[in-house]
């Protein structure tokens, strides 16, 4: 007796990656990269974010990436990756950085930290569903399902959709910074739930 079963679920991402780029030319008051970095640290510490665990430098061989503007001035850019756990904190961080004239902030990736465990649970549920389906199919014949003699994982995956060609399922509301003014309130961010699914093929002995 062969049956195929599939189960799926939706979860809210709890690992949100922000890319923060500090650039001397990206602020009105022409603050140095060092000053912008100090301002960034101040904002993150005010929100009780663990900098050692959540913040890392994204670069090549050194902390600073230097390049020339019109062959004259050397500009310094520093990039950071910040990992946060929820949309509310992301909104507070983005608004706080915007108030400090740090506006080059983007959401680069969203993840679910327990995805591997979730997929294992979904696979187990799919196998149980396959067994129930098999039992229901042989019940009218007054027969029973015996041991499983074959189990195949047809598809266990994370499914998502892209929104505006960027990070999947991100919507930003109330972001005054987008229109050029300083963000007086926290930016409201909604994350589309992430879809996970498991599909199995199981063969049982009919008793």
Low-confidence stretches: 161-166, 174-180
Q: Count up the domains.
A: 1
Shape: rod-shaped
Rg over CA atoms, rounded to whole Å, is 25 Å
Percent of residues in helices comes to: 25-40%
Given the structure, what is the number of helices?
A: 4
Give the structural class: alpha+beta
* N- to C-terminal distance: 10 Å
Task: Describe, in plain words, how this protein is organized in 3D.
It is rod-shaped, with a radius of gyration of 25 Å. It has one domain. The longest helix is centred in the middle third of the chain and has 24 residues. It has about 210 residues and is α+β, with helices and mostly antiparallel strands. Strands 2, 3, 4, 5 and 6 form a five-stranded antiparallel β-sheet that branches. Strand 4 and strand 5 form a beta hairpin. About 5% of the residues have low confidence.
Give me a quick take on this structure.
With 207 residues, the protein is α+β, with helices and mostly antiparallel strands. The protein has helices spanning 33-46, 51-54, 87-99, 115-138; strands at residues 2-11, 15-23, 55-57, 65-69, 73-84, 105-111, 145-159, 170-173, 188-191, 194-206.
